[in-house]
Amino acid sequence: MSDGVHTPLPTPVRRAAVVFVFITVLIDILAFGIIIPVLPHLIESMTGGGVSGAAWWVGVFGTVFAAVQFISSPIQGALSDRFGRRPVILLSNLGLGLDFVIMALAPSLWVLLLGRIISGFTAASFTTANAYIADVTPPEKRAGAFGLLGGAFGIGFIIGPALGGFLGGLDLRLPFWVAAGLALTNFLYGFFILPESLPPERRAPKFEPHSAHPLGALRLLRCSPTVFGLAIVTFLFYLAHYVLQTTFVLYADYRYHWGAQAVGFVLALVGACDGTVQVFLTGRLARRFGERRVLITGLLFGTAAFAVMGLADTGWVFLIGIPLMALWSLSGPPMQSIMTRCVAPDQQGRLQGAITSLGSFAGIFGPYLFAQIFAFSIAPARTVHLPGIAFLLAAALVAAGVVVAARATRDVAPLLDPP
Questions:
Q1: Which residues form the signal peptide (predicted)?
Q2: Which of 131, 203, 235, 278 sits at 20 to 30 Å (Cα–Cα) from 333?
Q3: d(CA 95, CA 71)
Q4: CATH number assigned to the domain comprising residue 37
């Protein structure tokens, strides 16, 4: 296994760099989180087809966004390997801000869809931020660093959806303007503050088009049995997660009668629980029990969380699944950390681009799959309504991931787990 780092940065410099990228990701997540509670309702207002019709279009939006990211993510990862992480992050933030302006002004559903397409091309900062963390952090500390980055996601989802729900209660388009302001502020922050993490001597010697297209990038994931197995787990992880992105807002409205503000507060609770786990537990548990055990345990919690959410016939029972969902996030950082150990420093961007493409590939099917299952289960013609069946499917996918992860990491367990 490659250690992924040739010359570790001094500790103070490494910590400062991690703080910089943490803030960059936090602001991006705030911008994304703000529009989550309102985008499905804005789509619903443009379609006029009720919840069932809106669910179909939400699935289309999610699938198109994922398809665009599937194509663009490996290109962005390869560009960051060749030219550095900083310029890719900056261009991403600038494009994202302009995209939110387009969506704020969108007069029709098709213009709104165009905005999501642009967003798919420009939303590269998450991919490049993970490569950035791999650049500046030694292998044994990466699970904690990835957990800290996950904490930025959690904190962003504490504030973003709650703020978006509040703003959406005033005007459905107001959250998009605020999101645009945050993304453009992030561009300025990165332009003046964010340092480069990949020095010229550690960059790829040239940009290779064959490694920048989706299938070429995914071939990197076959570099070892461990990476290939964890790539399958990653696909299942992302696929299951799309049930939340695609159906949660409409599912909560249909089953529990939660409006935009209630959904915003619930998502803030999700973010609070997730951020707490990522910042305070992931690194400590990985050091204490080992990355493999934490990975498998997190997946078991995810299985339980989706099962509870799918079976909950009242809102307060659904809320029980939220802390379980937060503990599911324990599985992500160790999975990332183990995979980064297996590739060279000049391949970290390609690896993160491939992982993002894998998630986007799941997104090509996931949003449509879960949206259609949800729409079918609540259609007026149905004599039996099973609105939670999409969440139960997600539980089955994560449970399959437990089995694959256990097998994929079995041979390297002595390197990952303490005695």
A1: none
A2: 203
A3: 17
A4: 1.20.1250.20
